[in-house]
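Hi support team,

I'm filing this because I wasn't sure whether my run with adenosine-5'-diphosphate finished correctly. The job status page said complete, but I'd like someone to confirm that the output block is well-formed before I use it downstream. Pasting the exact inputs I used:
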Amino acid sequence: MSADTISEQTQSYEFKAEMKQLLNLIIHSLYTHPEVFLRELVSNSSDALNKVRFRKLTDTNIIDPDDELRIDIKVDKEEQTIEISDNGIGMTQEDLVSRLGTIASSGTLDFIKNIKKEDGKIDANLIGQFGVGFYSVFMVTEEVTVETRNAENDSQAFRWISFGEDNFTIEEIEKEKRGTSIKFKLKEEYKEFAEDWKINSTIQKYSNFVDFPVYVNDEKVNTVDAIWQRKKDDITDEEYNEFYKFVSGDFSDPSERLHINIEGNINFKAIVYLPENAPPTLLSQENQKSLHLYSNRVFIQDDADLLPDYLRFLKGVVDTEDLPLNVSREVTQNSPVLAKIKNILTKKILDWLTDLANKDSDKYTKFYKNFGPLFKLGSNSDFTNKEKILPLLRFESTNTKNGEFTDLEAYITKAGEEQKEIFYVSGQSRESLERNPNLEYFKKNEIEVLLLIDPSDVFTVPYLGAFKEKLFTPIDKADIKDSKEENEENKIEDEQKGSLIKVFKDTLQDKIEDVIESKRLVDSPVTLVSGKQGLDPQMEKMMKMMDKNFQSSKKILEINLSHPLIKNLSKMNLESGSTVDLRNAIEQLYESAQLLEGELQNPAEFVSRIYSFMEKATEN
Ligand code: ADP
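And here is everything the job wrote out:
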């Protein structure tokens, strides 16, 4: 950011490139739900007021410590202007530059580009979720003036002006009271927002649960109401849903809700909502705000440690009377009260999800498709609740249809007493897994195999150990028993076998850990399985993506001695020994197995070998 001096008092700053692009998108796209700008500005004011209220719990040495905390909206129908003021924490010059001049989280621009539909429209509702809510005001205006003074007694006041395109200016002003006011003139097509009724109805829709009184032209328009303190029976579905939209910033109704009131050693009330859809940032660490913490109806923070990470997609509130009166951030971080609330809540939530799974499996499946990638990480991070979490996991398997799930309980019931393992295989898609030669034995013997196609599976399943004493076992490491139906006569004889395996080993040398006779293959000539030190193959792929220098472990090549192609090779070996043709065929088999695993390093060599085989085959 560069600052050029226009005059003594006014400095001009240029937005960063990413910010310019974002503003350009906001200014030039068409919107569904343009009224969202009001929610975003009111919610920023409410955040700023919360900060003052929080500060006052321990320190009243600020400007106007006794003023009523409130939001004032002045609309002027004639002038088509709106001014939103609060007596919140205000901003310093540094805040104006860094908070109002930059996009907080990386990736935001991409997300917003993604939500732009083909018709060029953006759903304004989604903008607020990406931490750039303030800028939504540029949907409805061309120029914004922000006047602000930080709450510290000796602070200075500033005016920030921007036309949204490239730059903004900041100058020092006189302002007696603390807080922020944001003023702008509506574009012609949005002049409706300068009507009282429009503002009032929009606030009722989006901001009715704001914790501070909102006045429109001096008339109070919201009901400041702690809905979670009321009795369940007195709250309508509509009120619950509106409150959800208020706390989550979501636009759709929630999928499910849980309203609890715990009394005893520890006392708290909570409303927890399961959203209908997952945000695109589900797995990102930036997306951490989950339950809002209140202490006796006073908002404390929206990122308190109230839920384990794997449940952070849930939204809602927790209100407790058990925190000390002068609660501060440090207090909440190490608070035994919060730790206890977290334990109780987690158990309640897992029971609630278990109920959902039992009562409405379609809804549960939808939940799992949406939030499973995060939720399942709980299975190997939350050891206390592992017993509750494992039955909640879902998987596609060789017995399910594409996109449908089974669960571990169903798996072991079908597998029966005899089978001591829960078999799985991991890969990028169901389609590629179904072609995996390592599955042939399992298909032939009708043994169900879990198909791990979600990247999060690879970080969990191999570390789960066992479920009801059945060990999780990858199929490419599974110790395959001799299949009863095996046709011994059809196989290559022992001494030929030894000699052929030796040619394979000599040809492939240290590309592989070993070459062995396969007991798992049915239709394919060869396959690669993990070596003794090997990680899960899908895990290795991910390690490679993250670290270019990652050395994958060596594989074992298994060969199918009853396969006609392998028999032909053995015959070649018997008749002419290790010829170039034989060695080429072996290389080709090895690389074909790599290709199926998505591991082929050198496709050019592979293809040129195919050409020479084809040339031979087409000679007469
Ligand atoms: P978000 O609110 O998600 O952080 P915004 O773009 O809406 O993103 O706001 C950016 C930042 O500007 C806020 O985090 C806050 O620091 C500051 N800000 C915006 N409005 C106000 C206000 N009314 N009072 C104090 N600070 C504000």
